Amino acid sequence: DPRRLLRADFFPGLGWMMPRRVWDEIGPRWPVGWWDDWMREPDVRMGRHTIRPEISRTFHFGAKSGASSNVFGKKLEKIKLNGVDVPWQDEDLSYLEKDIYRETYYKEVVDAKASNAQRMAIDIKEGNVRLEYRNWEGFQALAKKFNLMDDEKAGVARTAFENIVEFRQGGSSGNLVFLSPMLSTIKQHFQEGKRFDMKEFSQQIRMKPKPTKKF
Fold first, then answer.
1. Cβ pair 129, 143 in contact under 8 A
2. For residue 187, what pLDDT is reported?
3. Gap between the Cα atoms of 193 and 43, Å rounded
4. CB–CB of 76/69 below 8 Å?
5. What's the rounded Cα separation, in Å, for the pair 51 and 18?
6. Where would I find the beta strands (DSSP E) of 107-189?
7. Residue 37 bears catalytic tag
8. Which of 19, 75, 169, 212 is 20 to 30 A (C-alpha) from 147?
9. Distance in angstroms (rounded) separating the CA atoms of residues 13 and 39
10. Which parts of 86-203 are beta strand (E)?
11. Is 146 exposed, middle or buried (0-12, 13-18, 19+ CB in 10 A)?
12. Residue 151 main-chain phi, psi, to 5 deg
């Protein structure tokens, strides 16, 4: 949906803007390099969300080179850019208000039919589905299954909103697939997100990949 905007814990790094008040806060500490990863660190992000469009307006042009050495080239070259002119000044964006968004989004995820990787192709025809994972390794397995980027930065999966990653099965006309924690965890996060401030909450739910062995 070219008009759909979402909140995300993940800072995308390409084509972004920030309010002056945020720049006044972090500008004096701006790093010499690798600023995108720096922006994702908990003491910089401070629990803030990024507002992102469902359909990308930016494209990583380094399909053959670039700082990432084309690690994700096969995924990046398939990005489809938006082709619809949206007069944002006429759009009602009140649904992006933090409390409204959380309430609506969590309801959408909880109401989605619980499925698994084997049944999903059938269940998705009837509506949105939810594929649950128990830990970081479980998330990675699902992400790889559906050809999604399966890495994390500062404990946050790409595009994730409170550990939930979504995609559409079948393109723009398809229903939504939510990769999410277990249902009991989702409900717990929803309540905790209302009790704690966002900085504290966002650090509490960060993914914890197993450390890589060093020889």
1. no
2. 95
3. 18
4. no
5. 10
6. 113-115, 129-133, 152-153, 156-157, 165-168, 176-181
7. no
8. 212
9. 8
10. 113-115, 129-133, 152-153, 156-157, 165-168, 176-181
11. middle
12. -100, 175
Could you say which DSSP state residue 215 is in? -
> How far is residue 76's CA from residue 170's CA, in Å, rounded to a whole number?
18
Residue from 68, 87, 95, 65 nearest 13 by CA: 68
Residue 37 corresponds to which amino acid?
D
CA distance readout (Å), 48 to 42, 95, 106, 127: 9, 17, 18, 31
Q: Are strands 152-153 and 156-157 parallel, antiparallel or unpaired?
A: antiparallel
> What is the dihedral sign for C-alpha 192, 193, 196, 202?
positive
Q: What is the dihedral of CA 16, 21, 23, 29, to 10 degrees?
A: -140
Q: Which helix (H) or strand (E) holds 44?
A: helix 42-45
Using CA atoms, how far apart are residues 144 and 64, in angstroms rounded to an integer? 22
User: With the C-alpha atoms ordered 101, 107, 110, 116, is the resulting torsion angle positive or negative?
Assistant: negative
- Report residue 128 as tokens: 């949105």
Hey, what amino acid is at 190?
F
Q: Which of 9, 36, 43, 99 is catalytic?
A: 36
What is the spatial distance between Cα 202 and Cα 38, in angstroms, rounded to a whole number? 16
Which has the closest alpha carbon to 128: 76, 168, 158, 69? 168
User: Which residues of the chain carry a pLDDT beneath 70?
Assistant: 60-78, 171-173, 210-215
Scan for tokens 């060093």, then name that residue.
214
Q: Give the pairing of strands 5-8 and 50-53.
A: antiparallel
